[in-house]
Amino acid sequence: MLLGKKIAVVMPAYNAEATLRQTYAEIPHEYVDEVILVDDGSADRTVEVARSLGVRTFVHLANRGYGGNQKTCYTEALRHGADVVVMLHPDYQYSPKLLLAMASLVAVGQYDVVLGSRILCQSAIRGGMPVYKYVANRALTFFENILLGQKLSEYHTGYRAFSRQVLETLPLNENSDDFVFDNQMLAQIAYFGFRIGEVSCPTKYFADASSINFRRSMIYGLGVVRTALAFRLQKMGLIRSRIFDPNGSRLAVPEPAVPAPGVPQPAAPESAVPAPPVPAPAVPKAAARGGRTGAG
What we know:
This protein is α/β, with parallel strands linked by helices.
């Protein structure tokens, strides 16, 4: 609990066994009420490690993509009564130590959304970000700032904090299940007039950190351009895009329930199921799309 607000940390996971323990250990648990991990068909022991840490864990029986993973993350966080939701990748690329600062800015009502910016810290390349990704980040951010009317330092970070109102208002189910979900979500946030803040966030690139390859980066970049153009054309009244439709499909979140002692967790929506208690049979794995937890 932070300033009277219930804080949930959500971790969209794919093959995060090697880094999950370290990421979890640095979360400021004295302020965090829920830690939720959604596994997207990992081929390693991510689910087993999460259960051993006591993390509330859900499993996609078939890989649904990075965007599809986030939809389940936010649905479960809202279902468990979160007032502030922070997305933290379990690959240890972003420092969990900044989580409290980001959540605080939302909890006090200063911002509706807070981004952990790798660009503000001016050490992205020293931290290992490939030069071509840095250049693409700056170019796409410049383009998006013009079309979206914002002044953000970057749109492509995977470290984000949201108010409950944002997650309940945006038509997130209209968004892609792929990596461009992140960008579509920020465009929606700008379109619906929510306030966006940023904090400086050092980042680390290493063998076990999530990152998509050049081909997937190109697909993501084209998706970013399409999203920004759709935003501007929608504002000009020239098109009607479903992702900016105020009546578009939102996350389906039932009222949170308080289970009686000994009652199992309620079933999760669609293809996500709560991870069974230890011991448990292995969950069937499906071929993964993208193979990472973020576009960074």
